Amino acid sequence: MGSCNFKSDTLDTTQSLSKSHFQFHYGIGKGGFGKVWKVEHKKSKEAYAMKEMSKARILSKKSVNSVINERKLLSYLKHPFIVNMQYAFQDRENLYLVMDLMPGGDLRYHLSRKNKFNENQTKFFVACILIGLEFLHTNGVVHRDIKPENLVFDKKGYLTITDFGIARIWKPENAKDTSGTPGYMAPEVMCRQNHGVAVDYFALGIIIYEIMFGTRPYLGKSRKEIRDQILAKQVQVKKEEIPNGWSAEAGDFVNHLLQRKPVNRLGLNGPEEVKNHPWISDFDWKKIKNKSFQPSYVPNHEEDNFDERLNIDNDPWKDADSDALKESTLLLQNAATQEMFSGYYYDISQSNSNTEIANKNNC
């Protein structure tokens, strides 16, 4: 696969942004380190999604490298089919990542309310995801956490990819990078083996299967249970199992994505072989890329497309009295600890072409 040599991050770390520059409206999600808010930039009046992350929780989970990595990746990754970063800053207690607001909510929200989408709607979702993955993979990045919660609708009804917390620039020896969501995690990641772009296509296969049948192919209460199921059998959608209204090509597409061995999996050799599969090959890719195609399902962005709004006054971290978190909170008083988060600041208005994806000649 392609690989980019990212240029060094030379952004000025002198912060000119703070929490006070934004009007907080309400919570629209929860993450591993805190909340996601709908906010408005007081000066520009632009609405954004702001991820607020507790440094103490980041420290207690030994995830400093992951959050710094996400910030660095997003300063280079700019594309219409991913959720782009606009600002990043910090104070003593928290990191703040300000992203494009996707008013249509995430795919999980709509799956839980609509139950199932039809084949044409699903095919369009897949096309959007493939365009986003093509951009990432061509530039040497593996997302590693593709799932309905990380696919969000823009105001036109196009799906975009978000949450790059465990995304990585691909390297040959990456067996130790085993993070992800078990229900969507590829077997090679589950089994702590080296892995590449094919893990994202396995996750895509899980999502299509879930939309088709209303459940994931491998279920379990723990990572071990799911891994044991994957190792026990190769999921195969049989023709007689295909739901009414779905084509045999759809089942074939899923079967090729859900191959346990990555060498047999559709997508191992790049996005073109996925796009050339008979189920998806007839799409007008140019129209989708320039977003002139009319989706058959468009969330009403005037409505609240998020799970129940989070109480803005609630403490988002219920385990604040845990020993590990208490210890991490005390560490924040040390200058050396704060230095671990240095260089986090980002302002898109101060960036230039050097913050775009590295020159394609290096890929």
TrEMBL record:
SMART domains assigned to the protein according to its UniProt record, in alphabetical order: S_TKc
Domain AGC-kinase C-terminal positions: 281-356
The protein's Enzyme Commission number: 2.7.11.1
UniProt: ATP binding residues: K51
Pfam families with a match to the protein in the record: Pkinase
Domain annotation Protein kinase: ranges: 22-280
Entry-linked SUPFAM superfamilies: Protein kinase-like (PK-like) (SSF56112)
PROSITE patterns in alphabetical order: AGC_KINASE_CTER (PS51285), PROTEIN_KINASE_ATP (PS00107), PROTEIN_KINASE_DOM (PS50011), PROTEIN_KINASE_ST (PS00108)
Keyword Manganese found: no
An example Gene Ontology molecular-function term: ATP binding
Source organism superkingdom: Eukaryota
Keywords: ATP-binding, Kinase, Nucleotide-binding, Serine/threonine-protein kinase, Transferase
Catalytic reaction(s) noted: L-seryl-[protein] + ATP = O-phospho-L-seryl-[protein] + ADP + H(+); L-threonyl-[protein] + ATP = O-phospho-L-threonyl-[protein] + ADP + H(+)
Keyword Nucleotide-binding: yes
InterPro entries for the chain: AGC-kinase_C, Kinase-like_dom_sf, Prot_kinase_dom, Protein_kinase_ATP_BS, Ser/Thr_kinase_AS, Ser_Thr_kinase_AGC
EC class (word): transferase
Record GO biological process: intracellular signal transduction
Family: Belongs to the protein kinase superfamily.
Protein name according to UniProt: non-specific serine/threonine protein kinase
Organism of this sequence: Stentor coeruleus
Lineage: Eukaryota, Sar, Alveolata, Ciliophora, Postciliodesmatophora
